[in-house]
Amino acid sequence: MADLVWLHEDALRRTHPVFVAADYERGSDTQPVFIWDVDYFGENDIGLKRQHFIYETLVEMGAEIHAGSMHDILPRLVAARGVTRVLVPATPNPNMLRRYGQIRRALSDIAFDMVDDTPFATLSKPADLGRFFRYWNKARKSAMRPHGG
Amino acid sequence: MDHIAKLSGQQPCTPSPIEGGRVAAEKALTAINPAAYAATRNFLDGAVTRLSPYIRQGILSLDEVRNHALSIEPDQKKVEKFVQELAWRDYWQRVYVAHPERIWNDVETYKTGFDASEYETDLPDDISTGQTGVACIDHFIGTMLETGYLHNHARMYVASYVVHWRRIRWQAGARWFLQNLLDGDPASNNLSWQWVASTFSNKPYIFNLENVAKYTGHEVNTRFADNRVLGYSYEQLNELLFPNLAHMAGDQHG
Ligand SMILES: Cc1cc2nc3c(=O)[nH]c(=O)nc-3n(C[C@H](O)[C@H](O)[C@H](O)COP(=O)(O)OP(=O)(O)OC[C@H]3O[C@@H](n4cnc5c(N)ncnc54)[C@H](O)[C@@H]3O)c2cc1C
């Protein structure tokens, strides 16, 4: 099984659980991939200063940067490298989720997994998100403990 | 920068002085002082962390930042304010996951006495370029355009000026902030704009010149002659800005 870690701008670090989920033992590529998709940047209002900041981060973490559309680049990389599973850090961003869903449907014989980040606070019941302090009153205890535990 | 601009088909600009990468992020994390933060965070020169570009891009997780804060301050009570501010981000992210439509739509109606249709939809050039003629607001806008970062209190001032003094819909200001901030985040940014606007809070956030002078240092021009539209009491501002409403209180930090 060859895994490929596909990063986006919400999760640019090696300590993200997506790297724990990737099965590097079996010869998966340890270099994560970032697709420099200018249409996506435009849709998400990511300006040039921030692009520069993201680029510096990617270079430092040794990520592969591929310029082009996510819809073109990802299937090409998957085919060229015999990837069997694509791992992506979880994101709430609908623009990323839409692309993820479309590419996943197009590559139906490949496994896709979204991997959650480590939680900040764990709530026993679904949070009341009506106002911050309703959430905080329930989250405080967990948030004030190391690892939210 | 030239390489990035070419990749993105745009004219190069000056990069932010805030460096990307995990090494710079860890350096900034090591420098935090949660106890001093609690006492001074509302002041422009207070002990705020400037971690937001790293947290927003996931270079540091909220979990890592909280764990570090707890580990360096033996008195956990002194860390609570800082952890609570981190929790604001967690809260906005949870709203984003549960209700993605709230990012660009009014969560509630404006509590300003005006209907959404009475607000302009486009951001005028004098605002986007920082040439409004209100000295402190222009100073804050200039800082954001130059560095890609702005202190929380200054973000509140600028957002309030845009929505309540200029009567422009929060969406126009939110998009402009997203495009210019290194930490531009759909949830933290847009929902904070809605908080200021009163479409996701119980009342509009306003401030006055006295409040700006209290929280900023000498580098910000807070002379009345250069900031006339802000130089009123809260009572006067409420009457001027929200003539359809009865009296309200002003800056929560004041
Ligand atoms: C109009 C407006 C727009 C904003 N836009 C953004 C944005 O695009 N991205 C963003 O990350 N924050 C945004 N904020 C929240 C806050 O202003 C910034 O997170 C903070 O100023 C970043 O500076 P700092 O890292 O020095 O914060 P510190 O005060 O040192 O706080 C530490 C961390 O806690 C989190 N945090 C603190 N306060 C808040 C808050 N009120 N809401 C959410 N997270 C918070 C941030 O991750 C921050 O890095 C906005 C606030 C307003 C009023």
Explain what this protein looks like in three dimensions.
The complex is a heterodimer of chains A (149) and B (254). With 149 residues, chain A is α/β, with parallel strands linked by helices. Chain A has two domains: 2-117, HUPs (Rossmann fold, 3-Layer(aba) Sandwich), CATH 3.40.50.620; 119-149, no CATH class. Helices cover 41% and strands 15% of the residues of chain A. In chain A, strands 3-2-1-4-5 form a five-stranded parallel sheet. In chain A, helix 4 crosses helix 5. With 254 residues, chain B is an all-alpha fold. Chain B has two domains: 3-101, Serine Threonine Protein Phosphatase 5, Tetratricopeptide repeat (Alpha Horseshoe), CATH 1.25.40; 105-241, DNA Cyclobutane Dipyrimidine Photolyase, subunit A, domain 3, CATH 1.10.579.10. Chain B is globular, with a radius of gyration of 19 Å. The chains are: A alpha/beta (149), B mainly alpha (254). The interface between A and B is large, with 51 and 59 residues. Flavin-adenine dinucleotide is lined by residues 41, 48-52, 55-56, 85-86, 88-89, 92, 151-152, 155-156, 159, 177, 181, 183-185, 188-189, 192-193, 196 of chain B.
Topology:
The complex is a heterodimer of chains A (149) and B (254).
Chain A: E1 3-7, H1 17-21, E2 33-36, H2 38-43, H3 48-60, E3 64-67, H4 70-81, E4 85-89, H5 94-106, E5 111-115, H6 132-143
Parallel strand pairs in A: 1-2, 1-4, 2-3, 4-5
Helix pairs in contact in A: 4-5
Chain B: H1 2-7, H2 22-30, H3 34-40, H4 52-56, H5 62-72, H6 80-98, H7 125-128, H8 135-147, H9 152-165, H10 170-180, H11 186-197, H12 209-215, H13 234-241
Helix pairs in contact in B: 5-6, 6-11, 9-11, 10-11
The structure holds flavin-adenine dinucleotide.
Flavin-adenine dinucleotide (FAD) is lined by residues 41, 48-52, 55-56, 85-86, 88-89, 92, 151-152, 155-156, 159, 177, 181, 183-185, 188-189, 192-193, 196 of chain B.
